[in-house]
Amino acid sequence: MRKTLLATLAAALILTVLLSASAKIASTSSTNSAEAAAQRSGPQLPPEEIIRRFTKKESDLREIWKEYSYTQETTLRVMGPADTIRGEFFQVSEFVFNDAGMRIERIIKAPPPTLDQAGLTMTPEDKNALLNIQPFSLTAEEAPNFSISFAGKEKLDELNTYVFDVIPKVMSNPRELERMKKQKIEGKFFQGKIWVDDQDLQIVKTAGKVVPEFGQRFPKFETYRENIDERFWLPTYTYGDDTLEFDRFNVRVRMIIKYKNYKRFTSDVRLLDTEEIKEGQPSSGDKSGGEKSGAGTTGGKPGDSKPGATKKDDTKKEDANKPKQRPRP
């Protein structure tokens, strides 16, 4: 009888321990499931309110950007087998803004480009993309021209972000697209995704491409921002590695743009031998020679120009070394 009672008590004790452990596991699982569900669910703020806030901050950013000088280092390469370089555009420029809000560019370094050796021709649309669309700021004034839809939440390095799909409304308007095609207007808008920090409600990353495309082709790209001045997230790095598909041939291009040496200023700046670039417009040209200004995505058949010596791309894959999103201070 006593042995039976002891066995019963021991069994009851074991059962109690097992039930307690099971309850803890269930509680932990429930908590994790709740957190995962919260991550998958919609934002606490309505998407429309998030859009209103971050586009307003983008408008503020565009104004504050006029108080910064910075350096832009642009590299666009046509890649061959085994990552050899068939053609290249490289340029380093300094940008400042005068009191009238005009952006002024001073070209510091621009060796003769060799993209024509790979069958590409540079265009003003490419130059506009490099200067105005790859950095990309979706301001409150520009927002009505886009369809912006909430796509979910995502962890981006150390940041929690809201993700939005961004599509120019013109892309769903066949009549307007036909008009643009007849007038040879292309490469005017950004289309893709944006990531918005859930605390600062500012864009911290964009990924997509330039549209529309008719005769030209534009590479896909990603632009990352960092919290430069503990207040605004400014672009610091753009990377793209894409194959451009033309009617007669395909070309693989690799694009790297670095924005650095941000310095804030408030006084008017006067520079000699500069180009003045209106907002949203490309510069009239560079000082690198007789090639058209731009970044090199209009196709001509490879081999039409005299071939040059190829060299190996000695840079590591830049997207693996992209800057981490700096934590907010």
Give your account of this protein's structure.
The structure is a single chain. By secondary structure, this protein is an alpha+beta fold. It has one domain. It contains four helices and 14 strands. It has helices at residues 2-40, 47-65, 124-133, 174-182, and strands at residues 68-79, 84-97, 103-109, 120-121, 146-156, 159-168, 189-197, 203-211, 221-227, 233-245, 250-264, 275-277, 298-299, 311-312. The strands form two sheets. Strands 1, 2, 3, 5, 6, 7, 8, 9, 10, 11, 12 and 14 form a twelve-stranded antiparallel sheet that branches. Strand 2 and strand 3 form a beta hairpin. The longest helix is centred in the first third of the chain and has 39 residues, at 2-40. 31% of the residues are buried. The model is unreliable at 1-10, 21-41, 267-296, 301-309 and 316-321 (pLDDT under 50).
Provide a brief overview of the structure.
The chain is built from 4 helices and 14 strands. The chain is of the alpha+beta class.
Number of strands: 14
Number of structurally distinct domains: 1
Estimated share of beta-strand residues: 35-45%
Large-scale geometry: globular
* SS class: alpha+beta
Helix percent band: 10-25%
Order of helices and strands: HHEEEEHEEHEEEEEEEE
- End-to-end separation: 70 Å
Low-confidence stretches: 1-10, 21-41, 267-296, 301-309, 316-321
SS summary, helix count? 4
Explain the layout of strands and helices.
Layout lengths: L1 H39 L6 H19 L2 E12 L4 E14 L5 E7 L10 E2 L2 H10 L12 E11 L2 E10 L5 H9 L6 E9 L5 E9 L9 E7 L5 E13 L4 E15 L10 E3 L20 E2 L11 E2 L17
Antiparallel strand pairs: 1-2, 1-11, 2-3, 2-14, 3-12, 4-13, 5-6, 6-7, 7-8, 8-9, 9-10, 10-11
